[in-house]
Amino acid sequence: MRRVLVVLLTAALVTACGSADWSQPRQGPARIGSLGAGFSDPATTPAPESTITPAPGSWDDVHPPEGYRVVLLTAGDDAPTRTLADAVTGWADTEQVDLRTIDATGDQDLVPRVTEAIGMRPELIVTAGNDLVDPLTLVTASHLDQQFLVVGAEIGEPTANVTAVDWTGASYRGEGLEASSVYDPATFTEERGARAVRAGAAAVLSDLTGIVIWLS
């Protein structure tokens, strides 16, 4: 009898803490709000792999629905990666996102960590850390039903399920590939990280994926 009570109490606590069963489809709207003027050309959909430069704040009115399922995948303990991870966590707290985190720092092979994130069946995987760019290049094209948001970097040839947010100083594209600008850790500020996460999430929620979003 005691064991039954413990199980029931544990289940109640999990439910109370908002830990949903991700194996079942989530009910509710895909997004709340719409992109503002200047995010992209309303007359045409951005071509795959193209770069757009949204007007500042044009993403402010787009929000994920409560309980939106996100995995934050990080690799590296450098200051830029920590800043981006904190930005994702802050966004998730504000928007009441159901966030789970995988820290791949120190692993010899990062591909299994990407695969682990996919296996959790989130609605979005957000990545932070340049070390994840090459593993993502290997894996993402084989999982077109899984949306990815790469913050502060981009993969060389993204498929329609990989969206990136970059700016001058943060455009690493993988080993041996030329970046759009010289890498500068000082550009990974708290404010820019917050804008990058919100702009990128707004694009994904609005079905503008497979592109690079360039911030000022």
List the helices and strands and how they pair.
Elements: H1 2-16, E1 51-52, E2 69-74, H2 79-95, E3 98-103, H3 111-119, E4 124-128, H4 133-139, E5 148-151, E6 162-167, H5 190-205, E7 212-215
Parallel strand pairs: 1-7, 2-3, 2-4, 4-5, 5-6, 6-7
Helix pairs in contact: 2-5
Description:
The structure is a single chain. The protein has helices at 2-16, 79-95, 111-119, 133-139, 190-205; strands spanning 51-52, 69-74, 98-103, 124-128, 148-151, 162-167, 212-215. With 216 residues, it is of the alpha/beta class. Helix content is 30%, strand content 15%. The protein has a seven-stranded parallel β-sheet, sandwiched between helices. The protein starts with a helix and ends with a strand.
* Strand proportion: 15-25%
Lateral arrangement of strands in the main beta sheet? 1-7-6-5-4-2-3
The backbone outline, from C-alpha atoms, is globular
Give the N-to-C terminal Cα separation. Answer: 62 Å
- Largest β sheet strand count, sense and barrel closure: 7 strands, parallel
| Secondary-structure element pattern, one letter each | HEEHEHEHEEHE
Question: Quick check: average pLDDT?
Answer: 88
Number of helices: 5
**Portion of residues in helices?**
25-40%
Rg over CA atoms, rounded to whole Å, is 18 Å
Class inferred from helices and paired strands? alpha/beta
Low-confidence stretches: 1-18
Strand count: 7
